[in-house]
Structure formats: C-alpha cells, structure tokens
Amino acid sequence: MYNELFSIGPITIYGYGLMIAIGIIAAYLNTEHLAKKSGLDPEPVFNILIIGVGSGIVGAKLLFYITILDQVIANPALILSNLTEGFVVYGGIIFGILGALLYCRKKKLSFLHYLDCAAPSIALAQGFGRIGCFLAGCCYGMQMNCPISITFTNSAYAPNHVPLFPSQLVSSTFNFIHFFVLYTLFKYNKKPGKIGAFYLVFYSIGRFIIEFFRGDLERGNVGTLSTSQFISVFVAITGIAMVVFLSHKKN
Q1: Taken in order 158, 164, 169, 170, is the CA torsion positive or negative?
Q2: Tens digit of pLDDT for each residue in 159-202?
Q3: How far is CA 207 from CA 99, 167, 174, 214, in A?
Q4: Whose CA is closest to 89, among 114, 121, 53?
Q5: The three-state (H, E, C) secondary structure of the chain, written as one string
C-alpha cells in the first residue's frame, strides 16, 4: 500500500525490504537469546542464520518456478527475467531448514536444539514479512466487502479500488501469536526438536486456512488445493509425527 516509504538522495527505502530486514534482525537476536538461555553456544547462530536465509531464498524461488512450470518451459527466459519477485514461502522454510541441518551436521552441532531456538524466531520474522507484503500489495486477499476489508489505490500487485480481505495483516497477526505461543512452550520444553515440530504443525494449519482467503492467482494448485495447501497437509503430518515420536523418545 505504501511500499516506497521515503528516499535519501538516490536511495529509496521500500516497505517490503525494510520489513524483511527487521524480521531477519529480530529473528537473529531472538535465536541468540534463546540459545544463551538454553545453555547453547550462541556463536554459530549467525552462520546458521546466513545459511538458512540463503538456502531459503533459493528454495522459495525454486518452488515459485515449479508453480509456473508450464510458463517456464514455454519461455525459459522467465527464470532470469525478474529475480527479485516471485517467491513461495514454503520453499523458503523447507530449504532453509535443510540448509541449517546440513551446516549443523558438518559442524557437529545439535540441530534439534538450535531448531528449537530458531522456530519461534522464524514465526517472528514472518510476522514482519507479512507486513512488508501488505505495504507492497502482494499476497493480497480475495475480493470481499466486510468490516476489515482494505482497498488499494496505487498497488503494482493487488487490484486497485476494490475491497479485499486483508490476508497479509491476518497472516501477520497469526505469525506474531505463533511466535508468542512457541516462545512460551520453549520455556517448558524438555525434548529437543519439539518446538520445531510444533512450528510445523501450527504454521501449516494457519497457512491452510488463510489460503482460502487469498486472491492472488500465481500460486499454483494441485487438484482443488492450492500448492501451499497441498504442502501444508504433508508438513502438518510431519510435524505431528515428530511431536509424537519426540514425546516418547528417551533423552
């Protein structure tokens, strides 16, 4: 809605980029805080963050290309046409976790312990990220005339001058609540990996529901489900299986 916030000389500060930056910084600080709180070495947190974010960007872009695979096959130049737009969050989550896992295995670090520290932080970063989506106008909701509807007037992504469900702000609110829930569970958790598992369960349920209210079309679909809903089913099953397994696993 207000993506171009202000300019400093030739440099323009965009709302989307600013919110992503704030989210990453907040995630780093919170992960480092939780690592110290749980007695882990906080030094690897920065490298885990860099590996996770880098892998996540690649994964988010790759999954986006998969959702428009027919267009990419017809015009391969689309791959390089715009590298700064078109990302699917689930690709970022999956590849980000895999990247962090490989790094922890290489450095002989306890991946599950660090995952538990990072999981609430990921939800926190996503909360800021969705505010960025709102400012940019992407990931917009379906046309809906309701008390909380919003109307864009100068968006390059969302339809302008029509009432839309504020899917970005609802997602952001959910992610912040998600953060506080995971942060609270972290205090009482005794089983490494369960906070990460709860993250997968809670996020996938929330994402499955919010997809019904999304209005942007370039998200792909599998049958009657959107790509993200389809992935959410398997992520939720994986998370639930992890919770059950870890609950019965001896330390």
Answers
A1: negative
A2: 999 999 999 999 999 999 999 999 999 999 989 999 999 999 99
A3: 22, 11, 9, 10
A4: 53
A5: CCCEEEEECCEEEEHHHHHHHHHHHHHHHHHHHHHHHCCCCCCHHHHHHHHHHHHHHHHHHHHHHHHCHHHHHHCCCHHHHCCCCCCCHHHHHHHHHHHHHHHHHHCCCCHHHHHHHHHHHHHHHHHHHHHHHHHHCCCCECECCCCCCEEECCCCCCCECCEECCHHHHHHHHHHHHHHHHHHHHHHCCCCCHHHHHHHHHHHHHHHHHHHHECCCCCCEECCEEHHHHHHHHHHHHHHHHHHHHHHCCC
Between CA 166 and CA 164 the distance in angstroms is 6
Residues whose CB is less than 8 angstroms from the CB of residue 210 and which lie 6 or more positions away in sequence, other chains included: 167, 170, 171, 174
Mean pLDDT of 43-54: 94
Model confidence at 84: pLDDT above 90 = no
Of the two residues 61 and 249, the one the predictor is more confident about is: 61
- For the chain, what is the mean pLDDT? 89
Q: Hey, how many other C-beta atoms are within 10 angstroms of the C-beta on 88?
A: 23
pLDDT value for 219: 63
Band of residue 82 on the pLDDT scale cut at 50, 70, 90: low
